[in-house]
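Box S1 | Example of a co-folding query
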Amino acid sequence: MSTLSPSELVLNPDGSIYHLHLRPEHLADTIITVGDPDRVPKVSQYFDELEFSTQKREFVTHTGRIGNKRLTVLSTGIGPDNIDIVLNELDALANIDLENRTIRSKKRQLNFIRVGTTGGLQADHPVGTLVSSSHTIGMDNLLHFYDYTPEAEARELLTAFTGQFPELPVPVYAGKANPDLLNSVTGNWAQGITITFPGFYAPQGRSLRLASRISPELLDSFADFSFRGTRITNFEMETSALLCLAGMLGHRAISCSVILANRHDGTFSQDSAGDVDRLIRTVLEQL
Ligand SMILES: O=P(O)(O)O[C@H]1O[C@H](CO)[C@@H](O)[C@H]1O
Ligand SMILES: O=c1cc[nH]c(=O)[nH]1
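Box S1 (continued) | Returned holo structure for 1-O-phosphono-alpha-D-ribofuranose
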């Protein structure tokens, strides 16, 4: 059986995984990912018991319980590059024997639930609306570095999207949320296609002093696109990488967001802390 070298599977002197500073026993089967490190205690304040906490760089982790349900909440920081680190390292904790540096034959399946903020695209989703991602279109580059084969429905979405938008500035990919987890956590929410970008400003069509190649007309056309009756609902920076990497690794993942910016009418939430708290409580009630 081949072993993973110290340069590929990087461990700290205490045996924890390199960036996240976690050991396998610190990880629950259900993991809530948040972008902002300060959001981790805003989730774990609702735990009945906090069992473990640690931090390295922007990766803050709290593991505890609500009733009998063991949960880990972990901050990823902003962007798909961090999701690459988080997904690979959490999967290593679950599915690699760190002492022998070998991949376990029996795999452990994790549930990932992103609890994040987002920009809404649709006029009928005002700021404060909770939205979950049924599908995702990746305009970040991450999955192009993997041998990623989308399942049939995501391939069809990609064909429809690239057919309607043949001149995008970057190659795109598509993916899907885990349908069972999506229904159990966000069954009655607004749902739609989330586009993930590798930046907040020009990639999402914002221009302060620098012009974006995503024009206001293109934003309007994104809002008008639909695939089998499902519209593009929101823009953010982690969902595509999370859903697609989790699926490739045999895990289940969904992305839950609260709309803070409405790109149709140019508004931003007057109470982002309250909106995020409502998102957190709504998700936790379903677990
Ligand atoms: O609120 P979080 O979870 O960080 O998510 C969104 O907010 C950040 C940008 O402000 C990006 O990470 C985006 O995906
Ligand atoms: O517009 C927004 C708001 C939050 N997060 C994003 O990535 N975009």
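DSSP finds seven helices and 14 strands in the chain. The chain has one domain: 24-285.
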